[in-house]
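We emphasize that the prediction below concerns an isolated chain of 310 residues; any contacts that depend on oligomerization or on bound cofactors are therefore not represented. The input was used exactly as deposited, without trimming of termini.
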Amino acid sequence: MTQGQATDEPNHRYDFEAHRAYLTRLAYRMLGSVAEAEDAVQDGYLRWCHQDPNDVNDPRAYLARVVTHLCLDRLKQARTQREVYIGPWLPEPLVEEWSTSAQSGGHIEEDVSTALMLVLERLSPLERAAFILRDIFDMEFDEIASALERSEAACRQLASRARTHVVASRPRFQPDQEESIRLIDAFLEASRSGNDTKLQSLLIDTATLHSDGGGRRRAALRIIEGSHKIGRFYAGLARKGITAKPLWTRLVRVDGLPGVLSVEHDGALQTTAIEIGAGSILTIYVVRNPDKLRHLKAMLPEHVARQVID
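Result of the prediction step, given as a token string:
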């Protein structure tokens, strides 16, 4: 087979598919976008199709390097785009059914929480890649050095700096399922009714609300900090009828956090998730940007999906 010639061997595609899930997890943590992660992995597949498998000793390591490079290129473009993003930026929500999802239990390799994704967003692209490859995917530093085209010593420093930021930001508490359901239900009832007093009682004083509409949907243009401000914000929305009863809701996990997937009264698709600590709500994450939610329509009943307005 000549260089650059695509192979049509059936095993070639099989070899790639055996690693697709692994590569998609890697790309999602790098990019914070389900759609972009899938695109990066597909681009990796196209490159794999033009690679002679006889020249690759370890397909998974080779593909991880390829996808990492593709993600780094996308991260550079994404950072430029996020400089002009309207309002707070949140990663595309990775939503799982509540009944079939397990909490991470604090293990970093299983953690895809919004809080972690936001910490990763604050790292440089190389720090982010070094940390993900080492601490989440357990890659050896010689492999990381090859993937990032840096020395092993440099990669160790990158991973160490990133780890310091991540460890400092990780939650200290892991709520049980009953507490999670109680708090998400209580939050939704209080926020939709505009019950300022009840809502504030569920939040720590320094709670924050991140609402991502991306300029496409109504959302707060800044992160709202403090339980009193959050309470007044939702009370104001309730007075305007913006938090009216949704058309459909389902209890789910959003990036590992307790949350709800909903179709609001105006037909807007939305995810709401809460981060919990010591019996109170620390952070609220709301994604309303339809560009980040299209992949979730498959989770809706057909009659509900028809009511969603893009």
